[in-house]
Amino acid sequence: MNPHRYFRQVIALTALFLAASAVSGCVPHSTGPTEVGVRTIKFSFIGRTGVEEKAYPPGSTYFFAPFLNDWHTFDTRLITLEMTGHGMRGERPSRDDLLFKTIDGNDISLDIVISYRIDPQKAPFILKDVAKNNLELRENIMRTVARSKPRDIFGELNTERFYSAEERNKKAETAQEALNQILTPYGVIVERVGIGDYRFNADYQKAIEDRMVADQLTEKYRSATKATEQEYLKRVEVAKGDVARMRAEADGQYNQAVIEADAKFERQKRLAEAIRAEGLSEAEAVRQMNEALMGSGGESVVKLQIAQALQGKKLMLLPMGSGLDVRSTDINGLLSLYGIKKIGESAPASPTPAPAAPPVKLQ
């Protein structure tokens, strides 16, 4: 027998035996609730070998021959990579934070947390060209890229800007975008770049803290000065309001006094006009009376008035001789001298009326 032909037959029979054994002895391969599976075909009679370009969904079970196939799984849940200077936390038991220099040359260390996940559709590519499992991907790819690129980005800040939380957050967003540009082709998606504590050189840290305290005091004094200015302006406005109110009150009182004075002046003017009219009327009456008295009947009118005035009066005749001048004589004293008043007061009432005195003839 031809030895080469015999050898080929042995190989064929062996392959058939292995194939039959594999088909009859398939074993289960499962994926967890957050895992995807990737199958590697090690031997095939009719198809291609190598990593299968298919990601098996999570939460399933598949049966493959144990010797002709290989099986790998990748966890697609969100994974956190923490690199910190605190030995009790993070990925390493020792210091693992990022060490770099600011753009103005100061040494600084930064704690950083990166959250990422695997793209399920790229699991076959990861197995074939990147890593065989999550741990290898984490150590060989994620840590290397996550420590180098953020260090360069945060190092673009100077010391003063690094103190600003807003500036640090902007750089964290920039770092996330840069990491995705690098890692997305490898099947890794970075969801977030978080920053934690940061530390400067101890002496420099003390100097910066002192400066921050001084800046805070300065700002406090500025605020106090501003508040004092605002209070002063408020008081000025209140004083202006008081002055305006007092002026308005004074103007009101003045206008009221003017109105009252005008009203009083008008009343006095009308009263004076009435008095003047009354005086003119009386003067006109006197004038007309004088004109009447100067007429032919004026003497009779005067006599009539005198008679009416003397009606019911007691008359007494006084001697006009012996140098008696009525123009210079005290008539009251003369009457007292004659006792006329006393007699009149003590005389009893007469039942019969006294005889009327003879009328006085006026010349």
Polypeptide structure, described:
The protein is of the alpha+beta class and 363 residues long. The chain folds into three domains: 3-74, no CATH class; 79-200, Band 7 domain (Tetrahydropterin Synthase, Chain A), CATH 3.30.479.30; 215-287. The model is unreliable at 20-24 and 354-363 (pLDDT under 50). The strands form three sheets. Strands 6, 7, 8 and 9 form a four-stranded antiparallel beta sheet that branches. The protein has helices at residues 3-24, 123-130, 134-154, 159-162, 165-183, 202-293, 298-310, 331-338, 340-346; strands at 27-30, 35-41, 50-51, 61-64, 69-75, 79-83, 98-101, 107-118, 188-200. It is rod-shaped, with a radius of gyration of 69 Å. Strand 2 (35-41) and strand 3 (50-51) form a beta hairpin. The longest helix has 92 residues, at 202-293. Helix 3 (134-154) packs across helix 5. It contains nine helices and nine strands.
Low-confidence stretches: 20-24, 354-363
- Report the β-strand fraction as a percent range: 15-25%
What Rg is obtained from the alpha carbons, in whole angstroms?
69 Å
- The CATH fourth-level homologous superfamily of the largest domain: Band 7 domain
Question: Averaged pLDDT, please?
Answer: 81
